[in-house]
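INTERNAL AUDIT FORM
Audit reference: QA-55
Scope: verify that the stored structure record matches its stored sequence.
Auditor: D.O.
Record contents follow.
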Amino acid sequence: MIKNLTTIILVLFTTLLGSYAYTEFNQPLNQNVLRLHVVANSDSPADQALKLEIKDRIVTQMGEEFKDVDSAQEARRIAISKKAEIKNVAESIVTSRGYDYPVEVYVGEFDFPTKSYGNLVFPQGRYEAVRVVLGEGEGKNWWCVLFPPLCMVSSSDKGLSLDSPAEAQVSLKCLELLPQGVKVKISGK
């Protein structure tokens, strides 16, 4: 009788542990990242250059903030707490360049199309993001992944955008933070 009870308890424990592990490690990618999305006022060369300057400053500023972050939820909390600071940075650049259009910063879930970011594929879906909208927000946009920190590059570096994806250097820690099932293509270049 005790042997049967022990077996039943062991089976239940194993089932619960397996279920927890499956749920924990198979979360969709969109629940494990925080994206940065900067939308230009227009497609004019000046507005596009301004967008890149603003994203460079935000990426530099937020790089320190996200350096030791362990989860997308923690990254979101930091982004919300820094929302006014992000807006002030963007507004100061807009003003210093002689423009007077507004800047809006949102932290929430937004729809994104399927995109490649270096060797990573981000499927279409709703993702948590910090969205910075410049002026009318009618121009081409730029995005990257704030958490895990995959976009800590400047425009002078080999940057990544929706218009011209390039190779991203992904550290092993970043790969460990990604959920199982994410397709990662490693080339021999």
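Auditor finding: record pair retrieved intact. Helices lie at 2-25, 45-65, 72-81, 83-96, 172-177.
Action required: none
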